[in-house]
Design a protein that fits this description.
By secondary structure, this protein is α+β, with helices and mostly antiparallel strands. The chain contains five helices and nine strands; from the N terminus they run H-E-E-E-E-H-H-E-E-H-E-E-E-H. The protein is globular and about 55 Å long.
Length: 171
């Protein structure tokens, strides 16, 4: 759902994100080259996971493999044949067949820490998650995006009447 996607966008970085006109713009990737059956990404070497460990091309490769083998994201990333890493800043996605729509979907692919997939590299770090709320705090590590608010709290109110009354009260 939209709330879950927003939380993921805040806590994890992507290779690219969509700008105001829905065109791809740099996030973790500084540049990319698109060929019919290959995408080459040059990634930033100064970005850290919330643990302080630097994001590496191997983390990107791990993430790509997790997503392409996921039933949830197979439609978006099933065209990826394999992923290669080169030098300290290059990731190559080899495609089974041409798939020019993949660059539009690549923002859905969040970069996971290969050692701890719950460890993100986004502008906010997960502090608390339970059935009633999710609390995020501004990350202290270097991330592609910078948080402007110190703490963000998402409250989940399942009962429609309660949700309506809280909205009327400005809560």
């Amino acid at each position: 759902d939209a709330t879950s996607q927003r939380i993921l966008d805040l806590t994890y970085s992507s290779l690219v994100s969509h700008g105001p006109e829905l065109k791809p713009q740099p996030e973790l990737a500084t540049q990319w080259f698109v060929e019919p059956t290959r995408l080459v990404f040059k990634i930033r070497t100064d970005i850290q996971f919330h643990s302080g460990r630097k994001v590496t091309p191997e983390d990107v490769a791990f993430s790509v493999n997790e997503y392409k083998n996921s039933a949830t994201f197979n439609a978006q990333f099933g065209s990826i044949k394999n992923v290669q890493t080169k030098s300290g800043d290059t990731v190559i996605l080899n495609l089974k067949t041409p798939d020019m729509g993949i660059i539009q979907n690549i923002n859905l692919l969040k970069i996971l820490d290969k050692n701890d997939p719950l460890n993100g590299s986004g502008a906010y770090e997960l502090v608390l998650s339970d059935q009633s709320q999710v609390v995020l705090k501004k990350a202290k590590t270097n991330s592609p995006a910078k948080g402007k608010i110190e703490t963000i709290k998402f409250s989940f109110i399942r009962d429609e009447n309660t949700r309506y009354l809280k909205m009327l009260k400005g809560e």
